[in-house]
Amino acid sequence: MQRLSETLFRSLLDQMDTFLFDCDEKSFYTVKNKRIILVTNNSSHTQKSYFEKCRKMGFSIQSEENVVTTSTVCCDYLRNFLQYSGKVYVIGSPGLGEELVRFGYSHLGIGVWLVHAIHVKISITKGDFVKAVIVGIDVHLSYAKVLKATTYLANPECHFLATNDDARFPGLHPSIVFPGAGAMVAAVKTSAKREPIVMGKPNKPIFDYVKSRFNIDINKTIMIGDSVLKSPSRDQSARCGGEASEEEVPVPELIQENSELQTDIAFAKSTGLKSLLVLSGNTKLDDVGTNDIVPDYFTDSVADFCHFA
């Protein structure tokens, strides 16, 4: 593991043609003449909403397609791998629902449920034909929702997908623990006695999507991750080659599911990509010494890129 220096940074620029960033970075660097792809375990936002937020923050990304969310990967997996065209039951957020609609899927389950469990059972027996269940982050998770998902999954022909299995994600208050999608997935898989196919990092489906969609060369691609995305200062944005936005993006909107050493760096290691750990997030240098997952390079902040450029 090497600390990033100006010489090493310039060497990486020569070697790499694709830079994968987690969407939850404090900032990410727009590298001239290089392909930038944002890869996130977050299923709460659509490609379009992420793309628009990045534009408001002054970051240049080639297109909406260069934002890869687990919602998008779920939909693509249903359509192109499973070749499923039916209705989908969702424990998740409105953003996941929007992506399903964009891919042509009808769905149910999103939102607040104020129904008794017996009514859920009756609604299923009346012909609520669903053969695919997706579980993601859902702040309105309830017993009734888990009951319905579990009942659908009692059918062995019903597909079971999870956006990601991150245990928790960071919030504005470090003393408060925010359960991640993994908590919702654990509830459903425990009662269903089935294991889901997990879309997000460090699992294979999201890598397969990126590799096929962008035809990346593994030897010329680097994954940079482990931090929380929020609006940079105007000075920093200018140094990095972006234009300062006139409209500030509220930080709480951009704090989403966690990106830990076990996701971004493990994702790179399991797929043969080079990896760069950013220490401005939840993972500190001391954590690396106690973990089997070791990045190729590390730096204090993505802002260091600006100083090396």
UniProtKB/TrEMBL annotation:
Residues that bind substrate: 201
InterPro entries: HAD-like_sf (IPR036412), HAD-SF_hydro_IIA (IPR006357), HAD_sf (IPR023214)
Name of the protein in question: 4-nitrophenylphosphatase
Binding site for Mg(2+): 226
Keyword line: Hydrolase, Magnesium, Metal-binding
Molecular function terms from GO: metal ion binding; phosphatase activity
Lineage: superkingdom: Eukaryota
Gene3D superfamilies for this protein: HAD superfamily/HAD-like
Record carries keyword Amino-acid biosynthesis: no
Cofactor: Mg(2+)
One Pfam family this sequence matches: Hydrolase_6
Keyword Manganese on entry: no
Protein family: Belongs to the HAD-like hydrolase superfamily.
Coiled-coil region: none
Family matches, as SUPFAM superfamilies: HAD-like
GO cellular component: cytoplasm
Cofactor info, note text: Divalent metal ions. Mg(2+) is the most effective.
